[in-house]
Design a protein that fits this description.
Helix content is 79%, strand content 0%. The protein contains five helices and no strands. Helix 1 packs antiparallel against helix 2 and helix 1 packs parallel to helix 3. The chain is elongated and about 65 Å long.
């Protein structure tokens, strides 16, 4: 329960920071950061399941890492912001 709470609260604030950060820098860098955070979370969770005697705080650390970069909502928000940045194409110029 605490893992979902930590991940949800951090992703709520992390998405807002990530979206404004990718407005300043390029969107591709935002995608790379989010994907790297999700991969790091999955590696930590796999290691925790392999070493069963490890501390449960590593699982919370994994949710903090992924939560700061938006967790699973991060790529979706970046895709929407990328689609909204596409310039409007005039229909008359497109058909000619």
């Amino acid at each position: 329960m605490i893992i979902f709470l930590v991940s949800s609260v951090l992703s709520f604030f992390g998405i807002q920071l990530l979206d404004s950060l990718t407005d300043i820098v390029r969107r591709k860098i935002g995608f790379i950061y989010v994907i790297c955070a999700i991969i790091a979370q999955n590696i930590i969770l796999i290691l925790c399941s392999y070493f069963i005697t490890s501390s449960p705080s590593y699982i919370i650390l994994a949710s903090v890492i992924a939560g700061t970069y938006g967790d699973s909502q991060g790529p979706m928000v970046l895709c929407y912001s990328y689609m909204s940045d596409i310039p409007h194409i005039d229909i008359n110029k497109r058909t000619k």
